[in-house]
Write a structure and sequence with these properties.
Shape: globular
Number of domains: 1
Distance between the termini: 14 Å
CATH class: Alpha Beta
Helix content: 25-40%
Largest sheet: 4 strands, parallel
CATH superfamily: Response regulator
Number of strands: 4
Structural class: alpha/beta
CATH topology: Rossmann fold
Strand order of the largest sheet: 2-1-3-4
Strand content: 5-15%
Radius of gyration: 14 Å
Length: about 140
């Protein structure tokens, strides 16, 4: 049976969406990966663009509320922003909580190039962290 992973971030629009796409790519069929947020919005177009440049398509992802998953069992609950780590509910079962703090690329102001560069930087950091973590499983 595949291990199940839920990745949380406040808006489920950038970091958790990129992390979901990356972990699915990195883990292949080894993990079932989902993402959600406490205050879901929409998947950020810059997240879609940064992932597309990496060869991973998240354009069909949708922003989901964590309540959709409260009755599901997970092996791991990963938080990728500090606010989600503080507000994350208790999930049933044996879920191990893992927290990494990544800066919010959506908070960057400036030109579209500046914004995209911020998303790419966070994407690359997520990929390294998730890759190292997945290898340790």
């Amino acid at each position: 049976m595949k291990q199940r992973v839920l990745i949380l971030c406040t808006a489920n629009s950038a970091r958790s969406q990129m992390a979901e796409g990356l972990l699915r790519y990195l883990a292949g069929d080894a993990l079932e990966v989902f993402s959600a947020g406490a205050k879901p919005s929409v998947v950020n177009p810059f997240a879609i663009q940064a992932m597309h440049q990496r060869g991973i398509d998240i354009s069909q992802h949708r922003s989901k509320h964590l309540n959709e998953f409260l009755n599901d069992a997970f092996d791991y609950v990963l938080t990728v922003c500090d606010a989600a780590a503080e507000t994350c509910p208790v999930f049933p079962g044996k879920a191990q909580r893992v927290h990494w703090s990544f800066p919010d690329p959506a908070a960057v102001e400036g030109s579209d190039d500046d914004k995209l560069a911020s998303f790419i930087q966070v994407r690359d950091s997520l990929e390294k962290t998730l890759g190292d973590w997945a290898k340790s499983l």
